């Protein structure tokens, strides 16, 4: 997702060790003052009266003082590969209506409550996400089921992700909370330097096994605006010439969280994990569809191995612009109350659209959560020697 919430802190020393998920973590003694680090709008303060402007105060970001060790390699079995009934009859029952946003990407699924799905239906859901890339589910009771049930649902699709600089739901470090309301001065200052609030990216691509399936849940949003745009990176790859595709197939790129960590530390923000630098293929193979997908990131890709800095910049700029300009392989999701979106982080790039800004008051209220399910190590397009 596009927003990372953190705090201003004074770090003292480790004081205790607690268990989070499967690994031990260390609690730190910190003095906090909340700010928000947002990929689209960095360093926006969390309003002191935020609890008065949200419908879900229990989902306001909190900062559990936890240290996360590096992610270790783990076995991942994609639930989509378990599906034998390609018609997806357990998920797409007769009362379900599927409306496509665009012919090749994005669908709105009505008549399904995610909270009631059987394991077979969840497998079919994973297959449908892999095929359509972005699914929007309006009017979900899972929104009101609480963080434990929401996290449990996503755990079916992969290992939880714990963000290094993110505000979370208290006691649930897998949540990444996006809350924006007001912030007029910070937004004006940001737009003095930037021409747009969009930044195309995949979530957490710097990890050794990045997220495959990602859930976004809208708690509160403006009546109009705040859409999320997705682009299909397999279609973007296919549009390139055979000569360029052959060249890209053999390249690898460095994905790094160092810039994000450094920025947060510069302003005294809470950091829960050391920077991660990982080499991934520039073109990855989707494990379910078999399609080749461009794997680049406007925020975290820092270098293409074997190329000079100027060459890296030219190639990355070209590929990102190619994806951004590809409106014929994009889908724009318009949010409605209690909508849940599940998307495939392996075959898409996305960007939040921060267009709900009032010149007098700043940003209108928008409150959303993200949960990531970590997946396989990206499969390179090039055959091993």
Topology at a glance:
Blueprint: E1 3-20, E2 23-38, E3 44-45, E4 66-67, E5 97-100, E6 107-110, H1 119-132, E7 134-137, H2 147-155, E8 159-160, E9 176-182, H3 184-193, E10 211-220, E11 228-232, H4 233-238, H5 242-249, E12 252-256, H6 258-266, E13 277-281, E14 283-285, E15 292-294, E16 301-304, H7 309-324, E17 330-333, E18 340-344, E19 348-352, E20 357-358, E21 362-374, E22 379-380
Parallel strand pairs: 6-7
Antiparallel strand pairs: 1-2, 2-3, 2-4, 5-6, 7-18, 8-21, 9-21, 10-18, 10-21, 11-17, 11-19, 12-13, 12-16, 14-15, 14-22, 20-21
Notes on the structure:
A hairpin with a 6-residue loop joins strand 14 (283-285) and strand 15. The longest helix has 16 residues, at 309-324. The protein is α+β, with helices and mostly antiparallel strands and 385 residues long. The protein is globular, with a radius of gyration of 20 Å. Strands 5, 6, 7, 8, 9, 10, 18, 20 and 21 form a nine-stranded mixed beta sheet that branches. Strands 1, 2, 3 and 4 form a four-stranded antiparallel beta sheet that branches. The model is unreliable at 1-37 and 40-49 (pLDDT under 50). It has seven helices and 22 strands.
């Amino acid at each position: 997702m596009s927003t990372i919430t953190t705090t201003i802190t004074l770090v003292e020393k480790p004081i205790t060790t607690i268990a989070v998920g499967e690994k031990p973590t260390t609690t730190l003694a910190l003095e906090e003052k909340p700010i928000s680090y947002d990929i689209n709008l960095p360093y926006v303060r969390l309003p002191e009266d935020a609890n008065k402007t949200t419908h879900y105060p229990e989902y306001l970001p909190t900062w559990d003082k936890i240290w996360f060790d590096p992610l270790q390699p783990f076995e991942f079995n994609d639930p989509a590969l378990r599906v034998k009934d390609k018609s997806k009859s357990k998920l797409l029952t007769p009362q379900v209506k599927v409306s496509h946003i665009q012919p090749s990407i994005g669908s709105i699924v009505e008549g399904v409550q995610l909270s009631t799905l059987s394991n077979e239906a969840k497998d079919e859901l994973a297959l449908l996400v892999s095929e359509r890339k972005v699914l929007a589910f309006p009017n979900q009771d899972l929104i009101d089921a609480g963080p434990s049930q929401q996290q449990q649902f996503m755990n079916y699709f992969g290992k939880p992700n714990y963000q290094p600089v993110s505000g979370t739901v208290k006691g649930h470090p897998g949540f990444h909370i996006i809350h924006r309301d007001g912030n007029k001065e910070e937004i004006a200052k940001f737009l003095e330097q930037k021409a747009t609030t969009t930044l195309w990216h995949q979530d957490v691509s710097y990890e050794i096994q990045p997220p495959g399936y990602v859930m976004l849940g809208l708690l509160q949003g403006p009546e109009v605006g705040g859409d999320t745009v997705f682009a299909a990176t397999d279609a973007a790859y296919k549009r390139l010439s055979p000569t360029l595709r052959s060249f890209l197939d053999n390249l690898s790129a460095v994905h790094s969280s160092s810039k994000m960590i450094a920025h947060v530390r510069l302003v005294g923000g809470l950091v829960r994990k050391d920077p991660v630098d990982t080499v991934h293929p520039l073109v990855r193979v989707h494990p379910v569809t078999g399609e080749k997908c461009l794997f680049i990131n406007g925020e975290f890709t820092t270098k293409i191995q074997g190329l000079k800095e100027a060459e890296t910049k030219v190639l990355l700029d070209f590929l990102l612009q190619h994806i951004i300009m590809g409106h014929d392989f994009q889908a724009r999701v318009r949010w409605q109350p209690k909508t849940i979106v599940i998307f495939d982080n392996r075959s898409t790039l996305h960007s939040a659209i921060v267009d709900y800004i009032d010149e007098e008051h700043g940003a209108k209220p928008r409150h959303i959560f993200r949960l990531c399910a970590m997946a396989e190590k990206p499969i390179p397009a090039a055959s091993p020697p």
